[in-house]
Specification:
The complex is a heterodimer of chains A (515) and B (324). Chain A has 515 residues and is of the alpha+beta class. Chain A contains 17 helices and 19 strands. Chain A has helices spanning 4-19, 21-24, 27-30, 63-69, 119-130, 166-169, 180-193, 238-246, 258-261, 295-304, 307-314, 344-353, 371-382, 395-402, 426-429, 445-456, 460-477; strands at 43-48, 77-79, 85-87, 90-97, 100-105, 144-151, 154-159, 201-207, 211-216, 229-234, 252-256, 270-285, 319-321, 360-367, 386-393, 413-419, 480-493, 496-497, 512-513. In chain A, the strands form four sheets. In chain A, strands 1, 8, 9, 10, 11, 12, 13, 14, 15, 16 and 17 form an eleven-stranded mixed sheet that branches. In chain A, α16 (445-456) runs antiparallel to α17 (460-477). Chain A starts with a helix and ends with a strand. Chain B is mainly α and 324 residues long. Chain B is built from 14 helices and no strands. The longest helix of chain B has 39 residues, at 232-270. Classes of the chains: A alpha+beta (515), B mainly alpha (324). At the A-B interface, α1, α2, α7, α8 and α14 of A face α3, α4, α6, α8 and α9 of B.
């Protein structure tokens, strides 16, 4: 039986080959393979799941758009590979009064069209972002009322409420600079067609769903990038993106899940690199009704969900356990707080004490993309008698339910993940801990007090104290089941080297590429 | 969709004026169909959820949501939005994409060429493979060649397009490295996606052509032709094909629709910058104006192709013209 098989499949392969005969007849065309062929100099080609939605940096707010635009635009502050906040377009910042943040700008910075990037341009940019007519999806600057020019290189952001993390927020696109004169000339639509920033790369060409090309900016204030051209390619399907990597059409495939990356393990010339990330996952528990009202039940769930096992079995080890829901790199994280011990006996004892010796029935809602994790958690809970049905929903439905007025719309338990781009713990709790927030399902006066403490105080020491107490309280009261922060996973060939920060944005200016 | 044969047989004897009347009736019907499609698209996308929730991050405040909703015009009464939308249709003013912030017609028209290129190439590949295969099978009816072709056809018809696509990528891009795995550009980029998309259609067309030819070859006029001493080739090409073509044309027309539909998966696998991928993304983003426009475009294509199929009957089959 065995010998005929390979012969059959070879014949099948030949038959398939026959379908592509026209290709073989056109060898001259084939030499022109690859999108960036014929361009002089070194090229770095990066594939991610989709294109930027728009090239106007103030009209997008999703990771894939930011990944591209961060290479053409600068922000007031920035983050290095060490994750520390450092100067960008602003050299220094201070808070002369609780409702004002003052930024001193870097002198001599110019947009790609030669226009100066001064206080006037920065104030214009912030005010354009705040104008409802811009229809910007960037929401971080919610407490900023307006930007005011103080002198040619100084800008004030005036706030309606104290916001201690404005300097961190302007490291994102809330703090992006756009050229006022150019915008006046070409309008918003023209700007989105041919963006002009101050960044390390200048815009070259964009063919939607095909490729976006940029060239190194020789006049960049941070120094010219070490290679000539940066190309972003949208590839929605991870299998075909990895195939493109294997056939040398791209150098980096970004945005992979650990299981997708496993596909190319062992393939020569291609490797999987993973770096610490900050996307933090947790289960939100509806503490307002049912068995989850009882703190002992919530603690039992935390004991039952064996996170290290989950990471090993489902995520190929590419994640780190978190004690509560704060990622380790965020301001506010307290390393003295340890994760729950995973203890099935303890979990059963707590459940019995709460009157659920035989467990109970419940459900876990999750995105279809997270089905593996949700199923595994359901399995872990079953070991202590908690029978959780997994309800999978698409991302649109998920988001609608998450932000709907009905806080129970996603059921008693849902699997959530947050990326706290500001690297401040506030981002992780701002919408789901204080009892009056949109996604909060927990009423706790002490938690409300601590949230106010970290949100309204400007002194880092006071904020850290509030965060430490909040983490202790979160662990004790367990309104969530705390899971992990997942790594950023990339598949690469041997050409590029670069060091991404935990935020996981593809700022490629500091990358090196072997020709 | 109307059954083409019934309408075709209703054509009057005086072909010229009659054809014109049929065309006018058909075009009017098409407009009514498109009106209903437009209405259904408008209502269905609005049932699917709120785009503002997807544009803004989950931690946006309710006030921020309300501001954006108002600036997108989504806070207006449904009936106002609907009437605006209808008023724009005849002038092809289909609104501004919520996500791309560009007129949807610009977004749509920039993608149509890529999809037409892919679907057109796939149709050519399908016909180039299916016609010889179907003819060959019909002539070898019941023999090994026939069974071989039909077995191949069965495999082609029952294999999902995305799987064929991944298989082709693995063979020609990853292993042999002679064709690109994805992207858009020269002919070399077109080959794998076009073949992938064509596989199903090859099967459908070959199978139908075979049975249709077998039918025709068994009929009286073929026997007459044989009696006149014509060779097999002459009979099949000169008499058989023309008569067998009728149902095949119908199915080729329908295949244009399924090629456009199939393009959604194929474009995803090969990162092809066409309408299929655009539509999938627009639906995921709840980009109302763009989804509406894309649905209308697909519907209009179906309607036009059906119209052309109907009319082609009068050319292919003289009987259709004289039946009153």
């Amino acid at each position: 039986m065995a010998p005929p098989r390979p012969r059959l499949s070879r014949r099948d392969a030949l038959r398939l080959g026959g379908l592509a005969l026209p290709a073989l007849a056109l060898p001259s065309l084939l030499t022109a393979c690859g999108s960036a062929a014929g361009t002089p100099g070194t090229v770095l080609r990066v594939a991610q799941t989709s294109d930027p939605k728009t090239l106007d940096p103030q009209k997008q707010g999703d990771l894939t758009s930011m990944n591209v635009l961060i290479n053409m635009f600068d922000t007031l502050t920035t983050r290095g590979p060490d994750n520390q906040l450092k100067p960008g377009l602003a050299l220094s910042w201070s808070s002369p009064d609780p409702l004002t943040w003052r930024f001193k700008l870097r002198p001599g910075v110019k947009f790609h069209n030669g226009e100066p990037c001064d206080a006037k341009a920065v104030a214009f940019s912030i005010n354009r972002l705040l104008d409802p007519a811009t229809k910007s999806p960037i929401v971080e600057l919610r407490y900023v009322k307006q930007a005011v020019v103080v002198d040619p290189l100084t800008v004030d952001l005036r706030c309606s409420e104290a916001d201690p993390i404005i300097p961190a927020k302007v490291s994102l696109f809330g703090g992006v600079a756009v050229p006022p004169e150019y915008l006046k000339q070409v309008g918003s639509a023209g700007f989105a067609k041919h963006p002009v920033g101050t960044g390390p790369f200048t815009f070259e060409e964009f063919e939607r769903d095909h490729q976006l090309r940029m060239r190194a900016n020789p006049a960049y204030w941070g120094g010219k990038p070490a290679y000539d051209e940066l190309v972003f390619l949208p590839m929605a399907d991870p299998s075909s993106a990895l195939a493109s990597l294997q056939s040398d059409e791209v150098d980096i495939v970004a945005g992979l899940t650990p299981d997708a990356a496993l596909q190319i393990q062992g393939y020569p010339g291609v490797e999987i690199r993973h770096f610490p990330g900050i996307r933090t996952s947790y289960l939100s528990l509806d503490t307002t009704q049912g068995p989850l009202r009882d703190v002992r039940v919530r603690q039992a769930l935390n004991h039952a969900v064996d996170v290290p096992l989950l990471i090993k079995a489902v995520l190929d080890g590419k994640a780190r356990e978190v004690p509560t829901m704060f990622p380790r790199e965020s301001f506010g994280f307290d390393p003295s707080i340890t994760p729950y011990t995973r203890d099935l006996g303890e979990a059963k004892r707590l459940l019995a004490e709460a009157g659920y010796a035989n467990g109970f029935d419940t459900s876990i809602s999750a995105l279809t993309a997270d089905s593996n994790v949700a199923e595994a958690i359901s399995g872990l809970l079953a070991k202590v008698g908690v029978r959780a049905r997994v309800d999978l929903v698409d991302s649109g439905t998920y988001t609608s339910r998450l932000t709907s007025d009905n806080r129970g719309a996603l059921g008693p338990i849902y699997l959530a993940a947050s990326t706290g781009w500001t690297l401040d713990a506030e981002s992780l709790v701002q919408s789901n801990v204080r009892h009056d927030r949109r996604q909060s399902r927990w009423h706790n006066a002490e938690a409300d007090r601590l949230i106010d403490g970290e949100e309204l105080s400007l002194a880092p020491a006071d904020r850290q104290k509030a965060f430490t107490s909040l983490q202790q309280l979160l662990k004790q009261e367990a309104p969530f089941v705390f899971l992990y922060q997942i790594d950023n996973v990339y598949a690469v060939n041997t050409r590029p080297t670069w060091q991404p920060g935990v935020v996981g944005v593809l700022a490629m200016a500091s990358a090196r590429v072997t020709p | 969709m109307t059954a083409p044969v019934t309408t075709a047989t209703r054509l009057p004897a005086r072909a010229g004026a009659g054809v014109l009347r049929v065309v006018v009736t058909k075009v009017l019907t098409a407009i009514v169909v498109l009106f209903f499609v437009a209405t259904a698209a408008f209502l269905l996308v609005r049932l699917s959820g709120d785009p503002v929730k997807l544009i803004l991050p989950p931690d946006a405040t309710a006030a921020q949501e309300a501001t954006l909703r108002a600036s997108l015009g989504l806070d207006r009464p449904l009936i106002t939005q609907y009437l605006d939308y209808l008023a724009g249709l005849p002038r092809l003013k289909l609104g501004t994409s919520l996500v791309y912030d560009q007129p949807v017609t610009d977004v749509l028209f920039s993608r149509i060429p890529a999809t037409l290129e892919l679907a057109g190439a796939a149709l050519l590949v399908a016909l180039a493979l299916a016609v010889p295969a179907g003819t060959f099978a019909a002539m070898r009816r019941g023999r090994a060649g026939d069974s071989g072709v039909m077995a191949g056809v069965l495999v082609g018809q029952s294999t999902p397009a995305f799987w064929v696509g991944i298989l082709l990528i693995l063979i020609f891009a990853v292993q042999l490295k002679i064709l690109p795995a994805s992207g858009y550009g020269g002919i070399e980029h077109l080959i794998l996606p076009a073949v992938t998309l064509a596989v199903y259609s090859v099967a459908v067309i070959a199978r139908l052509l075979r049975s249709s030819l077998i039918d025709v070859l068994g009929s009286d006029f073929i026997r007459t032709a044989k009696a006149k001493g014509l060779g097999t080739g002459g009979i099949v090409l000169g008499h058989g094909m023309r008569n067998a073509a009728l149902p095949v044309v119908t199915v080729v027309g329908l295949e244009v629709g399924s090629l456009l539909g199939g393009a959604i998966l194929t474009e995803q696998v090969f990162s092809w910058p066409g309408l299929g991928r655009l539509t999938v993304e627009a639906i995921q983003n709840r980009d109302f104006p763009l989804v509406q426009a894309a649905v209308l475009f697909f519907a209009a294509t179906f309607v036009i192709v059906n119209l052309l199929v109907d009319l082609s009957y009068t050319i292919l089959d003289p009987r259709v013209r004289v039946t009153s």
